[in-house]
Design brief:
The complex is a heterodimer of chains A (53) and B (503).
Chain A (H helix, E strand, L loop, with lengths): L1 H31 L9 H4 L8
Chain B lengths: L6 H11 L13 H12 L1 H45 L6 H8 L2 H30 L8 H20 L2 H27 L27 H7 L2 H6 L5 H4 L7 H29 L4 H5 L4 H49 L6 H4 L10 H20 L4 H29 L16 H20 L6 H18 L14 H15 L1
Helix pairs in contact in B: 2-7, 2-11, 2-13, 3-8, 3-11, 3-13, 3-16, 3-17, 4-5, 4-16, 5-6, 5-13, 5-15, 5-16, 5-18, 6-13, 6-15, 7-11, 7-13, 13-15, 16-17, 16-18
Classes of the chains: A mainly alpha (53), B mainly alpha (503).
Chain lengths: 53, 503
């Protein structure tokens, strides 16, 4: 039981840090490439409600 | 454009225009405030007050301590998956918009209502729990007194949320530090004094029979049921997405707010659970307490002494108030964004913004009043508030999981490509993390509906069935979904009009 708790503690810490580092890396790259305001938009996606005329 | 002076502000406004909306809410909060609101709603201290006793009775210290870590791993996957979409589509509608844009307006409408209903019930659960928790401190012992106290708490939240996002953001920031300071006090208060041996953390002693669990299942299943407190606590972190239109650089700050709120809560919450459990000097007395609340109060008095436990009781009540405040902020934005797109009757009123305070005042008071009516109905019908709040928690998790699932499917079909991703992205790891998050929602739904929570499954079934009926019978032909409020020039004119009214 003691071992299971330690394993889960290590996994949760490692997973949390991994996700943090991955996202931080991608945000950093976006900042360097001046893409901080890019993402989904109505124009880029061409989204329109099927009831809208 | 007085409000849009800096280049960054102008870019934020143009970004919102690209999603079809005008900058009517005041964009005035930064990254820490975005984190603070989600952190305050998760409020693991509030959750512990209501659920620590339930958890320790159900699966003992081992289930509580180890289960928290297990839930944290999946909560991180869920938060990261939502953060990615918040970065791609940063609007106040959050999951409702995500489900609409990635899926279709039907999924969006369903998600919007499930989110709104979840907001009502979560706020009702938080403020009613706080009233029950603080009533003995104030010498209130009658049901009527608790109801009046609940009404006063809800009214105080409504009032603070009315007077502008600046005040709420300041209070949310304070709340985040308050939670951290309180956890430090709780941990040091136990560790610096004689406490139970560390082996108590792995004790499997429990008392599930006291939780109307008959027959008592094997420990493996008790362990799963003991995950409920942590599952319940890790909700509400969508708040950072709901205040996207009031956040600077929302494509970066909103996702960080979501992710960091869960990550910090996971770490600080675990430390708090460990400290409280080590503080228990007589485990059998806690396990045999009348109910979960009594078990928690007994834990406090054993961990910090009679006087210290009473001080902690008061401080925890403060944390609960902040949690209710953040929930009210979030609920108001959720309703505002859905009504702005004509998603609910009376949308003109609920989708309006006060020119004076630049807040969705009517939407805020709607969530406050409906939460109070819900509590009155439950008390009047002698219903089970825990079944209602559990149903709300499932609704929220479905809201979280649905856009993630829709994005996975859209990615598989090729209708969602990496050019739609925002700057906060998991890149190649996105798909596996998203799959884990969606599966986790399924597990949560099963556990929430399992005995002894027999009422939750049918209640959730009625909710889904009712929404499906209304959609196919009425709303499918009426509800258009999100719409561009105007051309670029018209959006600027709307913003000018609001700013002139303010001036």
């Amino acid at each position: 039981m003691y071992f299971l708790t330690l394993v889960l503690l290590a996994v949760s810490l490692a997973f949390g840090i991994f996700l943090f580092a991955t996202a931080a890396g991608n945000v950093g790259r976006a900042r360097e490439e001046n893409r901080l305001h890019e993402g989904w938009s109505l124009d880029a996606s061409g989204w329109k409600s099927d009831l809208e005329g | 454009m007085g409000e849009h002076d800096s280049k960054a502000d102008r870019e934020d406004v143009q970004d919102l225009h690209s999603l079809g909306y005008a900058q009517l809410l005041l964009r005035d909060i930064g990254g820490f405030a975005s984190f603070a609101i989600s952190f305050s709603i998760i409020s693991f201290i509030t959750g512990a007050a209501g659920l620590y006793g339930y958890g320790i009775k159900m699966s003992g210290p081992f289930g509580l301590i180890t289960g928290w870590l297990l839930v944290s791993i999946f909560a991180l996957a869920m938060a990261a998956s939502m953060a990615e979409i918040a970065s791609a589509i940063p609007t106040a509608g959050a999951m409702y918009h995500w489900a609409t844009f990635i899926g279709n307006r039907g999924w969006g409408w369903f998600t919007g209502w499930a989110n709104v209903i979840g907001c009502y019930a979560i706020l009702a659960g938080i403020d009613y729990s706080m009233a029950q928790f603080t009533a003995p401190l104030l010498g209130i012992s009658t049901q009527a007194g608790i109801l009046w106290l609940t009404a006063a708490l809800l009214a105080s939240h409504g009032l603070f949320c009315t007077f502008g996002i600046r005040l709420c953001a300041w209070l949310n920031d304070f709340s985040a530090w308050y939670h951290i300071a309180l956890v430090c006090a709780m941990v040091l208060g136990v560790l610096l004094r004689p406490h139970a041996p560390w082996s108590q953390l792995w004790s499997m002693d429990a008392n599930p029979a006291s939780l109307t669990l008959d027959p008592v299942p094997a420990y493996n299943w008790l362990f799963m049921l003991g995950l409920l407190p942590a599952m319940w606590i890790f909700t509400g972190y969508d708040a950072s997405a709901h205040i996207s239109e009031e956040t600077h650089s929302p494509r970066v700050n909103a996702p960080w707010g979501i992710y960091m709120a869960v990550a910090v809560s996971a770490a600080a919450g675990w430390l708090m659970m460990v400290a409280l459990t080590l503080g228990i000097s007589d485990l059998s007395a806690v396990l045999n307490a009348k109910d979960g609340t009594e078990a928690f109060l007994l834990t406090l008095s054993q961990a910090y002494g009679e006087q210290g436990g009473r001080v902690m009781w008061c401080l925890i009540a403060g944390a609960m108030w902040f949690c209710g405040l953040s929930s009210t902020v979030c609920g108001g934005r959720t309703i505002y964004a859905f009504a702005r797109d004509r998603g609910m009757p009376g949308w003109k009123v609920w989708g309006s913004v006060s020119p004076r305070w630049r807040t969705p005042v009517w939407a805020t008071w709607q969530v406050v009043v409906v939460a109070m009516l819900l509590i009155l109905y439950i008390v009047w019908s002698k219903g089970d508030i825990s079944a209602i709040t559990a149903t709300a928690a499932i609704s929220l998790y479905v809201c979280y999981g649905l856009p993630v699932l829709l994005r996975l499917l859209a990615r598989a079909r090729g209708t969602w490509t990496s050019r739609f991703d925002g700057p906060w992205s998991l890149g190649a790891w996105s798909t596996p993390v998203n799959v884990v998050a969606v599966l986790w929602v399924g597990v949560i739904c099963l556990i929430f509906m399992a005995p002894p929570n027999n009422a939750v499954g049918p209640l959730f079934g009625w909710l889904v069935g009712g929404l499906a009926f209304v959609w196919f019978a009425l709303e499918r032909r009426r509800f258009v979904g999100p719409r561009r409020l105007g051309t670029e020039e018209e959006l600027y004119e709307m913003e000018h009009a609001v700013e002139e009214e303010v001036a």
